[in-house]
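Quick illustration, no need to memorize.
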Amino acid sequence: MRYILLVFIFLYSIKATALNPPILSNEATISLLTCSPGDELYSLFGHSALRVTDPKKNIDVVFNYGTFSFNEDFYYNFVMGKLNYSLSVSSMKGFVRSYQSEGRGMIEQILNLDSTSKQALFNYLDWNNQPENREYLYDFFYDNCSSRLRDVLEISIDEDRIAFQDLQEAHNPSFRNIIDEYLIYHPWGDFGIDLGLGMPCDKIPNSYEYMFLPNKLMEAFDAATIDGKPLIKEEKTLLETNGLTYSFSMFEPIPLFWMLFGLIAIISAIGYRKQKLYKAIDVVFFLMIGPVGALVFFLWFITDHTGTINNLNILWAWPTHLLAIPFLFFNKTRKMYWTAYGTVLVLTLLAFPFLPQMLHYAVIPLMLAGIVRAFVNLKVE
């Protein structure tokens, strides 16, 4: 019986140790790490994490809310808007090494916290890292690796002690305007995101919601106060970076689609003069636009993504194009369909500057190509 009791005491002590992180010394610091954008689309917006270091306790770790696992359900969950991210803990050396290898920069902002606040924040992070607590449903605008750090700070420390300043810009940029500043380095990524995201992306974020991006979070922390004192005690540059560079290419969406429009317009003009439809152009056009419309429909009505609803790209990208292809070979149905589609395209183009959703400029030549084909189909028997 005595041995059984000793086993229970041993197991309880292990559990207690796991649930009670070390007591930080007076030399401990907690910092916000802001990593600069990378070349790949997934890293284009940068990254944020929290560093806890205590030389007396031999602690130097990074708490990172931006990790996920490639399991068998990853692609399904990603597409359906059900992707879980999780908190992970790694050594500071390994964390720095990974960003250094990518040529990315890193800035450290040491938080101006007293010992009690440091311990409270560290305790929360440790609790949050337990297997049953570390996962969360990722949302690009409202719940991600940056906004989580803001929330963690306010949850672990009395939020009334922390005051974030109003950093809204004078021209009141929307979520889409803000991310466009990063997407200029990835034109096709910019086009794809503008296709997939609907009107929620055109919402103007308040000062609090600005912190969904790492650089905005860094700016907010720099301007914030705690108990009337600056939240940031010291700032260091841990890794230098030359930044991203942009080089123009004719194969970006805007120039490529204008060239496509020119080709369709020339062939359509020749066909109009000869009173020939060249229906193959319409079939190819519908096969190109139809899947885009199907994707917009799928993201809007089938998935759980909050940012893909109410997507006005559906005005020019009709998913019905795929079903309408056989009817292009019958004069009556062909004219009826092109009349409806052409009318909507003209109205959308006229309303383009006033729409509640900012459409990508690359869709203008696509709409013009549709209008040209509608005109030819109505004028040629």
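Residues 108 and 236 are 5 Å apart (CA to CA).
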